[in-house]
Structures
1.
Amino acid sequence: MTREKSTSEVRVGGINSRRVWIGGLLGFVAWAAWSGVTNMVVLAGRYPAAQQAGQMLQEPRYRFFMGAWFVVLLLLSWVAAWLYAGVRATYGPGPGTAIKVGALLGFAAGFPMAFALAAWATFDRVFPLWWMLELWVGAVLAALIAGWYYRER
């Protein structure tokens, strides 16, 4: 692994890692906003009913869940930026490549557990659907924004 350092960039194996980190941070802002829309707008009215029916807890098991969730989204946004930077040499730079990266990452992050919850959980299937969309659409947004920001130099 080669490291070249200048005043404006740090390159690791041909990837401008400073731009990956900043792109991941920018992607996280969009993903966090989308997460807010899915949970505080789309699903907000459904949570109390599921809680009153005993299908969901009134409080999370972990008090730090909200903060940890946003850390997870930040890390996934960084993964999207890093994957985009890595594959753009093969698939070409641009939104098409970013969408593919985001769609694949979002599928891996969101679909398997959403499918299992839809099959086995007692609450309405709309929850796993929107939780899956939160991850899938969020990953695409993060990859698009990171891809827009990323430059080799």
2.
Amino acid sequence: MKDPHQHDPIDVLGEVYEKMYESVAKNFHKAEEKSGPILHKLVDEAKEDAVKLKDISEEGGEKLAEWLKRDLDDAVHYMAETGDELKDWLGFETALLESSFIDLLLKAADKTTLKLIQMKEDAEKSVTYHTGEITGPGTLNCTECSEKLHFYKSGKVPPCPKCHGTVFHRKILS
């Protein structure tokens, strides 16, 4: 029988991802200067804190920081380029998310701030998600068959249930 006090490692990664995100969102909202480098610095600080508190190993922290930066960069790029709202990037109604998480997302996703950040960043960067990585809430589309994977909380990206593809994007590719 499984020990009820033992957590699934994937669930732990998702929980630590969300803790890191919460830290980044709170600190980014308070920051005087809002830019991509500041956002990435805050992710690195959140990773350091998670490792220091022994929430995750150094190696796990590096992966989560990379994935969190990817998700934040993708959201910023999408909203700045399209002018769409966060729910459009997520691919479903924000009412399906836990309220504290969505509140932090919305505070950090001020459109003016996002446009300023995006102007400073490389707009041509392609963001991909791979099986085995952790992603935040939202909808991923398989690059092979366009099957949609919905994440209502942070979780591990599985292979595509339809074609077993392993590469995904937030938007449907044309």
3.
Amino acid sequence: MMPIGPLMKEHRLIERMVALMERELRRLNDGEEFDPGFVDVAVDFVRTYADRCHHGKEEDILFRELAKKRLSDEHRKTMDELMEEHVYGRAITGQLSSAKERYVLGDAQALATVVASLQDLVGFYPAHIEKEDKRFFVPCMEYFSRQEQEEMVQDFWEFDRRLIHEKYAATVERLE
């Protein structure tokens, strides 16, 4: 299995969540009542699955290994762009979370920021995923031997195995 297989599979689940965010935007634009619980779930999904799990594997494993290779200027530029996009996604998710909290505390104006943040995420993820799927992941596998690719897949599985423990240890520490 090529290391990009698990990453591309994760993209499909992220796309499904983006579709749910689009549905929520349509509801809000149709004047339906805001559901702060949906935003809580969406923020948790983006922070834990899309960012910490998926982007974590890219940054901590794939990009780290690619940084050791002599990349073409185009691939190096694209990798740098992808890392910047990850930072952007984190910032928008933070804005969404903060705006939801302000709304729940009585700031009705914050709903506009919730909507804008959801729109930003819905616009961001499809373009980001397409760049990775079509312009980056597949051509970058040429830099790795079959053995290096297999080792990366093992690193991805180990990363996933540790993630749930990391998430819930942090939850308990925060509550303590």
